[in-house]
């Protein structure tokens, strides 16, 4: 899991920071023995399961700051991650009730984010196995699956009336139909289970008084978006149950509706992940004003790159919606040319960027390459900046993930989009976006009281 140890250290450091506000920012002695009682209050955080735990365990170890000097960046990632609101001028915590409340709410939100992550991956597998059109009706509350042979035959007869069966799966056996039906059914019920996972803990924490007004409004907005996701999903599926305009065209869902469905899922995930980080880490890592200024410079680059990464992910939805991954299965050229001749054959011109197979794939290639180059530029431009070692490690991790994602994309294309690589590529997109969210969250501006307490530079000491 991402950052178990560094988030644990955040809470440990906070427990005795309120007793030692006048001590040096970087300690050379152990904290009082009384602080050992905070061991049972550490945050054991659930983060997106795709992000490699091994990297983060090692990325936040001691790293050289100056020649012959080390800073315990992992242990002192955030000097004041969780403190009383009355002690932090300009800082309003999202959770009432202290460290235990932060731990409970944060764990719940990270679990919800991980659930959305798994839901996106499951949705990708459902699409790649062509299972999404197997259920020809939809109810908001859901229904029980077929329990008898008669019920299975009834569902199969409904599917036989769909364009997909008539043009793609004609002659399919009942056992094959059961497989795609169960895939779509699992995807729908997994989404409904997320609603239960969200509502029940929310009601409990609200009753306990942990949820502030600001957090409550944010979570209600995310819940509304999640509830609407079910309607968007059916709206998308319904487009694939309609007769295609030509007898030579395979039935598929609208690329516009698929992009809306995937973008909404990404937005829910990003909102949950950012909110969870804000709950458990209300202050960014800051040990000196020099590091704060360096983080501000990183943020100015990280924000537009994050938007580019998000745009690349959305363009991937149009690749999937147009089944463009099965065209031009070569790299770096598209067939025998760098740019196909038919990229602007549709009218009006704007349609080519969303419906033309050649143009859609070319756009995705360009955006993916631009994303990788932008992250590489971020890494190069920050090498000489005076920034927190944890921020530097995050930038390196983001570059590694961007390179891995491009490799997955090329491998998926050259292999004619197998289910394993296709789903891994979709999970990689969300993982890379997770890195960008974490980087933007880590480089945000500290509260006014923390800024006032920081020295100009980190004290030069060995550990």
Automatic annotation (TrEMBL):
It is a multi-pass membrane protein. It holds the Pfam family COX15-CtaA. It catalyses: Fe(II)-heme o + 2 A + H2O = Fe(II)-heme a + 2 AH2. One of its GO terms (cellular component) is mitochondrial inner membrane. Its main location: membrane. One of its GO terms (biological process) is heme A biosynthetic process. It is found in: Membrane. This is Cytochrome c oxidase assembly protein COX15. GO terms for molecular function: heme A synthase activity; metal ion binding; oxidoreductase activity, acting on NAD(P)H, heme protein as acceptor. Pathway: Porphyrin-containing compound metabolism; heme A biosynthesis; heme A from heme O: step 1/1. The keyword Nucleotide-binding does not apply. Its cofactor is heme b. Residues 21-41 are annotated as: Disordered. InterPro entries: COX15/CtaA_fam, HemeA_Synthase_type2. It comes from Arachis duranensis (Wild peanut). Keywords: Heme biosynthesis, Iron, Membrane, Metal-binding, Oxidoreductase, Transmembrane, Transmembrane helix. Signal peptide: none annotated. The chain crosses the membrane at residues 105-125, 189-206, 215-236, 256-280, 301-321, 364-381, 393-417.
